[in-house]
Each structure stands twice: as C-alpha cells, then as structure tokens.
Amino acid sequence: MMQGAVCHGVPAALLPTGVGRGPYAYQTFRDLIDAYRFDRPAGFTVKLEGEATATVYYLVSGWLVLSKSTANGHRQIVDVVLPGGILDPVSADACTSIVEIEPLTDVSFAAVPREDWHRMLSENPSITREIDIINRAAIARMFERMLRLGKGSAESIIAFAIYELHLRSTVLGMTDGYRLRIPMTQQQLGDFCGLSAVHVCRTLRRLKRHGVLEVTDHMDIRIRDIDALTEIAGIDPDALRQEIIPAA
Amino acid sequence: MMQGAVCHGVPAALLPTGVGRGPYAYQTFRDLIDAYRFDRPAGFTVKLEGEATATVYYLVSGWLVLSKSTANGHRQIVDVVLPGGILDPVSADACTSIVEIEPLTDVSFAAVPREDWHRMLSENPSITREIDIINRAAIARMFERMLRLGKGSAESIIAFAIYELHLRSTVLGMTDGYRLRIPMTQQQLGDFCGLSAVHVCRTLRRLKRHGVLEVTDHMDIRIRDIDALTEIAGIDPDALRQEIIPAA
DNA sequence: CGATTAGTTGAGGAGACTCAAACATTGTGG
DNA sequence: CCACAATGTTTGAGTCTCCTCAACTAATCG
Description:
The structure is a homodimer.
Chain A: H1 3-7, H2 23-35, E1 37-40, E2 46-47, E3 55-61, E4 64-69, E5 75-81, E6 86-87, E7 100-103, E8 107-113, H3 114-123, H4 125-150, H5 154-171, E9 179-181, H6 186-193, H7 197-209, E10 213-216, E11 220-223, H8 226-233, H9 237-244
Antiparallel strand pairs in A: 1-8, 2-7, 3-6, 3-8, 4-5, 4-7, 9-11, 10-11
Helix pairs in contact in A: 4-5, 5-8, 6-7
Chain A binds a DNA duplex through helix 7.
C-alpha cells in the first residue's frame, strides 16, 4: 500500500511545496534536479571520497542513512534522509567525506555538481532560504537525538526514533494514519539508536506488550498509543514539530 | 598563563585568519562584529526565544556550550563553541530556539541582527564561504561525537572529547603544548559525554593511572601519551583534523 | 572560618551487552 | 515444488559497564 510512496514517485509534499514558490525559481530548481537525476536499487553503497564530494545530492524518493563507523566495527547512523533531504557530504577541508551513505530502499536522487548547485542558489535567493531551513531542521533533529543517545533509556531513544520517523513521513504523505513502514532491520535501528540489535528486539517487544506499538512483519509499525509513545520519548509534540519539520 | 587567551582578547587565529582575506571583506566583517559586540561574565545564562532568535551570535572570545535538556532534568551538551564559532540558534520554523546557551568562561561575543548578518553575507561571498566551512566543521565534529555517544565506552568518548577540545584549542593558539585547561566541571563534561559526573571522575582517574593524562586542579589537563589517547578514542588524527578544523 | 561547590571513593543495583541457540521468512536452484 | 541457504528476529543466560545513592575530602570564597 504505502510502500509505493516510499520507494517510487515524488511524494506530493516534495518538489511542489516548500522548495521555491515562484514559477521561475521552481522551474530552475526542478530542472536542475531532473538534469542530474539517477535511480539506484536498494543494494548499492557509496563511500564518498575524492571528486565524489564535489557533488551535492538531493534525494527525490526513497530512504537513505548516513553513518560513521569506528575501526572496531561499530557503526552509528547519524541521520536518516527522507525525500526532499539534501546531502552535502563534505567536511571542513572541502575534500574529505564525513559519512558513509547507504540506501534503505530503492532511491531516486539528483547528484548535482557543486558548481551548478551553487550557481542555482545564487540565482535563486528564495531557494537558498528554503534549503537553509531544511538544513536547520536536520540539525535540530540531530540535537534531539543526541540528547537521547547520551542520557535516556533504550525505550526513550527507540520511542523517539519511531516518533520522529513517523512525523517526518507523515509530513511527506508517506504514512497511513498511525501506520508506518520503517525500511530498516533491527540491526540498523540499533545502529541508529546506539543499541545492539538484540536489545532493540527486546525493547520493541516490551513496547508491544505494553500496548504502545504494534510491530508486524519487518518493521511494519502501528502506533497504538501515541500519548504513551511521546511520554516515553520525552517529547512535546508541538515543540518537536516546530523544530524538526521544515516550515517556510 | 593560557587562561588569558581563553577568556580575554582575540586569539591570533581568530579574526585575522580564515574569515575574509581581502582588506574590504575583512573590514566589513570586523566592523559588523565590533558594532554589536558584548562582553558578559561567566555566570549569565540565556534561554533564547522570541525575538532573541532574530539574532546571529559570533563568539569572539571565551567558551560556550549549547545544550538541550529533557523534562526529567537530564541535560546533553550538544556542542562546545570556541572563539570564532557561530551560533545561529533557530530551528526550522525560524522562531523556536533549539538550544540553551551557557558560557563556561567570561565571553565576548557579537549579537548581530539577522538582517545585518545576511546583508553582510550577501555583500561578501568570500565570507559566506568561510562561514559555510565553519558550519561544516561543527557538523563533522557532532557526527564524530554521536558515533562515540552511541557506541563506545566511557573511556572512548572522554578521550575523544579531550582530544577534540585540545585540537581545536591548539588551532586557536590556546594551548601550551599538550597542556589544556578545559573550563568545565566534571558534571559538565559528563553532560557533554553522556555520562554521570561520578563516572567521569572514575574514568579520568583511570586514564591518569594508566599514564595517559595528568589532571590537576579543576580540569587542568596534560596529555602524557597522545598515541594512547587517540587509540582509546578511536581517532585517526590526520583524518579528524581534516574533518573538524575549518581550513580554507 | 563556616559555607558552598567540586571532586573522590565505596557499595549495590539496573540496564544493556555478548554469546549462543532456536525460529521465521524469503529467495534460489535442483 | 521442495530443500536449503541466507537473512533477520526472538529468547535465554551470564556478564559488565555505568548509574544512583551516600559519605567524605579538597578547594574556593565571602
């Protein structure tokens, strides 16, 4: 049912809304995206380096995760990118890549040469502003996640992750009420929440047992008690929405 | 000795380097900063909200931390801001503040109205680029910290924090070789590393016992075995420097 | 010089980890 | 169409890290 929206097509909320409202700006941005658009199946992985970093990525559809890993094999997913997300994976020295990128689903994205990207921005101040807002939202949700990664129980970080992904998906029109398919394994959710896969499993089952969630068939989630979920996650729903949802 | 550099005056590396190299750009930026500059003692706190968020802060000297806290009293420091750092504490909706701000020392900063800030940027593309780089560096170091916050032992996150702060301070000319004064209590370091103050204490003592650090008198730190420190933190020193140090 | 704040140390407990084995689901080749 | 492999989830047992509580010491300051 809703897989379609996740993996294919441009969600209604994506290009039309939010990014450039004037007809000219809209055309420009969209043309640029279309010109450099690629489709890739779920399997591929990118370790960005060298000239690959001279590129700005704009996700049109599908889910990506950005992660870092340590020498001893641990991995932390630092952000989940949903359609409309921007990926500018270049560190301070403008040539070392910061993160590894992994698609969770089939993805469609635009790989725009940095030069073209910046030209487009300089010609379209309104888009610059929109993108600024998108970036702010990304930082805001990272802050929230750090809060729960550092302090906070397994329950609270998992509850937060699920609530965050549900909220963001809903804004993109990818949910069916309180139902949400998260295209991650428990291992990946663990890498996102700083937990072992085993503990993710136990925690999800506890949430299920307490009637907060329903989890079926590989992360097909239904939120049964949203108040309990936000309570466990330590979320003020209105404040969170204002912080992490790009609103112009 | 080096406290002077931490708390007062403009570190050599700050305004002159990095931010705007042409005489015109340099003048403009510096004038703006000077026009809106404030000094504040260590004690004050800001909870930014309302029109306060229509302001961009540029830290001239001193240390600040940005933190978030939960309803149940836990706090996570999401970043430490050193001289030259920019603080644009506005979330996606452009009016809710994301973070609380706390100075660790006496600070001198410029509180620039957003409008003026953006005008300055639009008139000085080179400064825009510099600031972009500063922001990237901030994100890169947050990614690194998230990796250790999620996975990683108390030793590794503390070792990382100390190494990071030493590296950044060194670039700003605020260290004396391997000596560094971190103006944080163990409680604050714990809030930064996602640990209790008690465990910070134990961990520091262990590092001391193993000859990695020397800790005297309220976080006056000397790194005795930098290789051991990077090993424990899981750091590749060259790569880290490239990622988190703004280099133009 | 007491009062406050920060750091140290011990004891005990809870939460999350690892290892390991069983089970479920999906996909594949014979 | 079945057997089997591969992948992911579930559950149990045991351990270790880190937390909390609490008492004590050290340093700082009016």
